[in-house]
Design brief:
6 helices; Four Helix Bundle (Hemerythrin (Met), subunit A); 0% strand; single chain; globular
Length: 160
């Protein structure tokens, strides 16, 4: 049985997203929205909001060609509770599976119009759908790590 690349990306992105929720499900709301006493850090809620906002952009907008309103700057100021975050993540996961589970492998080679500030694709070719998905995985994993470290800096026990 052959598994599509899109379904493989979906599996990894879901695993990362579920781990974000696992890291945050036991965090009191005050800690979820508490700033660290360190420069240029974000609250757990803001990190999780930015992670899902970026994932929606790179997967649903660039690869899935859907229209989604995004205010990147507002993601870093976001405040809220776990229930709202979980609801957003569930919507993201459903939409992500709709796009990736049936995505033809050939579609991964097609160019996408990413942001001009993104420079990780090779300079000798345009950004393609596979690049966008790889970036979504990379970016999600990076911010999951930030969430894990921020938990500890807030005095919460690590979750494995």
């Amino acid at each position: 049985m052959s598994v599509s690349e899109g379904a493989c990306f979906a599996h990894i992105l879901e695993r990362l997203s579920r781990d974000v929720l696992f890291q945050l499900e036991d965090v009191p709301e005050a800690d979820l929205n508490r700033h660290l006493e360190l420069p240029e850090t974000n609250t757990l809620f803001a990190l999780a909001t930015h992670l899902v906002g970026a994932a929606e952009y790179w997967v649903l907008v660039l690869v899935g060609q859907r229209q989604i309103a995004r205010d990147r700057a507002a993601e870093f100021q976001a405040r809220g509770d776990f229930a709202a975050l979980k609801e957003r993540y569930e919507r993201w996961l459903q939409a992500m599976h709709e796009v990736l589970d049936t995505l033809p492998d050939a579609r991964l080679q097609e160019p996408v119009s990413g942001p001009t500030t993104y420079r990780y694709a090779p300079a000798d070719r345009p950004l393609i759908a596979r690049d966008a998905l790889l970036h979504a995985v990379e970016h999600s994993a990076l911010h999951l790590g930030h969430i894990q470290l921020t938990r500890q800096l807030l005095g919460l026990p690590p979750r494995a």
